[in-house]
Write the structure tokens for this entry.
Amino acid sequence: MKGSAKLITSLLVLGGLIYVPWVVKNPYYLHIIIMSGIFVLLASSMNLITGCTGRLNLGHAAFYGIGAYASTLVVMKLGFPVWLGMVMGGLITVLFGVLIGIPCLKLKGAYLAITTLAFGEITRLAMINFVPLTNGPLGIRGIPGPPAIGFNSTPLISFESKTSYYYLILFICVLCLLTIRRVLNSQIGRTFMAIREDEVRAETVGIDTIQVKIMNFALGAFFAGIAGSFYAHYVRFISPDTFTLGETFTILTMVVIGGLGTFYGPIVGGVIFTFLPELLRAISEYRMILYGLMMSVAIIFMPDGIVGLLQSWISGRTEKGDKST
Amino acid sequence: METILKAEGLTKYFGGLAAVEEFDLYVKKGEILSLIGPNGAGKTTTFNLITGLESPTRGKITFKGEQIIELRPHEIVEKGIARTFQITRVFRKMTLLENVAVAQHIAIRPTILSILFSPSERKREKSGLEKAEEMLRFVNLFPKREELATNLSLGEQKRLELAIALSMDPELLLLDEPVAGMNPKETQEVIDLIGVIRGKGITVFLIEHDMKMVMGVSERIVVMNYGKKIAEGPPEEVSQNPAVIEAYLGRRTPQ
């Protein structure tokens, strides 16, 4: 009963999302919606590392950027088809995720934050300075979009309109989020939580924490890389300016205010914090003040994020212990 | 009876301090052995050395004839040694069920590919959860299975620790002060549980300060002081040993 109710709700939500382009005709609005899809992916992938396993990763925008550059370069320099390039974008990012994951194995808290922050900066500087490959600060323009999907010469989806990209990101998001949810609800998800709670204790219940932590980094990197490769082929222009520390903090805000360590938190946070800056555009320079104020209020009154707050209302699962542990 | 665990010349220095020094120990299969001694005698350090949380400065430890010193903690668990902690270390922000289920890792052995594509994975996970429920029933915490571990009382947390350790089907169970801080009724419950555990053929090695419990359940007692073994033997014998009385009560001053 409960399961079927969930299924019906999911199908209704999905139906509503499929219907969106019929309602939203304005390409600017549709663009924001597509961007929120990208940020949902980024926030969800960061949540895997920072929320579920409790490792503050301040280099997340680097994964996003590596995915974008990797996909672009294998398509433009090596002549890979765009679809394969996008998958390669994810896989190459996994490689970097593992590379940064290994030296970070023994690090926690502030030390891990600083190391990953340095990784993010190194990546950005490499993008700026490795001109033969990345074209430096000018970025790469003219990135091809995905080829049309269809039979022979009659294309069904041609990737010229925003609508087609909307459906593509919707498809990618659904696929990735289903995967993430499956991981979080599995034994692996429980091992992530156990490592967040007490790493040494996790070892003593038979968990190979080194293996799990590398897997966790690889997984987070993969989805961020996929988000990056979609971004590259959607916007068709990438430059180091997009993949900055500021971007990491935007993603972090989404995760924290949405609900750290929850499945729905980063989705809610990703959508809200893509729309909010656009909605507040009207009050121009004052919007950052309002933005900051809202964030402070959110952190003080909702330490477990929006979704955490809703969950504790629904289940009445209140914690008597202090929040800091 | 065969020896299941053996430590020889076990030594651990923390800086210049010898927490454990030239310590020899054997545990026989199926027995209940207690390790006692004043605070700071090196008991918990000994447990940490056996379970791989600390590596010894010198000495060796064999489990079922196999050297286990170089192994990482999760590998030692896999060999069949599980433990509980004196200061409880349950996963506080996880439910009781999750706490025990996560300890089924060795039985399930999940990989990213298996959880996404293997149809038998869900079956393995389900049997892991069933095992967790069974263990929670065993320690009488089943009604609280959906609560967060942080909401449990100390006595309940200790029982949860026991459920976690037992769920891994160990051959040797190390209990670090399983009844510390418990009232007499709770203590009796744990003593009864230990009896049942032993009945299942699991070897129990415990650290305890509660003398009533130690004398009641142990078949053999090892006494430590300042990192060294000062006495060993059956409870009646150890309780009469002058060195033990001295370690606990101090030396009688000559009149």
